Amino acid sequence: MKKTITFLLLLAIVQIQAQEFIPLWTKGKMPNSKGLVIKDSINNERVMQVGMPGIHAFFTSNQENKGAAVLIIPGGGYHHLSYNISGFQLAKWFNTIGINAFVLTHRLPISPDLKEREKAPLQDAERAMRIIRKNAVAWKIDTNKIGVMGCSAGGHLAASLGTIKDDFAVVGDEFDAYSFQPNFMILISPVIDMGVLGHKASTENLLGPNPSAELLKKYSLQFQVSSYTPPTFMAHAFDDKTVSPKNSLLFYNALLENKIPSSLHIFNQGAHAIALRNNPGSTNIWTAICEQWLMEINILKN
């Protein structure tokens, strides 16, 4: 009984920090599900299990609203979601610069409920983008100014949204008509490669212990960049021992080859999953650089 009360209190705290929680799928209509009852589980500011995927909405005030939005995907190695440090805190910052933010709680590929583990996170991300676009008029958002941001493995899922064209989220309802393609991407300490340069745990959690060569290449996103991919901002640290900065280099090189206007910053310090604040040295100015970049690509106006 005590454990149940504690869990409910934690869930209530998560809900309170956002203005609204919007489920992605109607009951009984969630694709790629075996129909098992999966309970949401939270521990130490980490979502450990997702039964009801959705988005936590953080809206700006009407006066501060710049008409832009960003879907934020927390990191966690596809094992959990660090919803606070790489989700809610970032959403609050985006609000300060006039951008509406939506933090994604997606199904984890290690869930026993999934039929195809690797598709579930991207299914939920695609659906989230469609929900934002469908409600754009009501939320005073320009449908040409909706981007995605992700940290670490969340960066991999964000980059998947901007490179993989497969529609995994089509379910035959009114949301299918809306595009899930982001207009810009912000990737912080992202996992890109599913091979030797990637993050082994993220690869195994997403693709399983023995993925085929075809699956490894499909989700090694440096191979998926094309004219479909939107302008991208990337930040990584030279001393990242968890996800090599070579991941960002691989992706940036593919962006260059495809002539995608983008910005890459490899900071001297910062280790893994550069935070919003309290970073060492010059790494602490990444948010200021990112804001200026959003002005350069006309998501924000001076």
Automatic annotation (TrEMBL):
KW Hydrolase (keyword) present: yes
Key words, A-Z: Hydrolase, Signal
One Pfam family named in its UniProt record: BD-FAE
UniProt xrefs under SUPFAM superfamilies: alpha/beta-Hydrolases (SSF53474)
Signal peptide (from-to): 1-18
GO molecular function, one term: hydrolase activity
Keyword Transmembrane helix: no
Gene3D superfamilies the record matches: alpha/beta hydrolase
Start and end residues of each BD-FAE-like domain: 61-255
InterPro entries associated with the record: AB_hydrolase_fold, BD-FAE-like_dom, GDXG_lipolytic_enzyme
Annotated PANTHER family: AB HYDROLASE SUPERFAMILY PROTEIN C4A8.06C, PEPTIDASE S9 PROLYL OLIGOPEPTIDASE CATALYTIC DOMAIN-CONTAINING PROTEIN
Protein name: Alpha/beta hydrolase
Organism whose genome encodes this protein: Flavobacterium alvei
